Amino acid sequence: MIDINSHRRSDEKLECLVRCSHKIFEALKESGAPTSADEFLPVLIYVLLKGNPPLIQSNVKFISRFALPSRIMSGES
User: Fold this and answer.
1) Quick one: CATH architecture of 2-74?
2) Are 72 and 23 in contact (CB under 8 A)?
3) pTM reported for the whole predicted model
4) CA dist list (Å): 26 to 1, 11, 36, 53, 63
5) Which backbone phi and psi does 54 adopt, to 5 degrees?
């Protein structure tokens, strides 16, 4: 997540978020915890708060504005 600012294109930034999400799901699976959205979202929030990536709000707005909607909705880039 920290390197999201090193990417210029919306699809690259989206890929960074997707990779982070996949890593979170992998960690949940390894811990034996259920891997539903109910478990994922609190962990994602925790990761964002602890990682404190710079300009995350601007990056999310940039992705929302310029990435293909189908890629955003599919969770893949």
Assistant:
1) Up-down Bundle (1.20)
2) no
3) 0.77
4) 16, 22, 12, 21, 24
5) -65, 140
Give the domain ranges of the chain: 2-74
The DSSP line for the chain is: -GGGGG--SHHHHHHHHHHHHHHHHHHHHHHT---SHHHHHHHHHHHHHHH--TTHHHHHHHHHHHS-HHHHHHT--
pLDDT value at position 77?
A: 47
Q: How far apart are CA 30 and CA 20, in angstroms?
A: 15
pLDDT digits (tens, 9 = 90+) for 38-47: 999 999 999 9
CA–CA distance, 6 with 41 (Å, rounded to integer): 25
Give the whole-angstrom CA distance, residue 63 versus residue 71: 10
- Tokens in use for 62? 């940039």
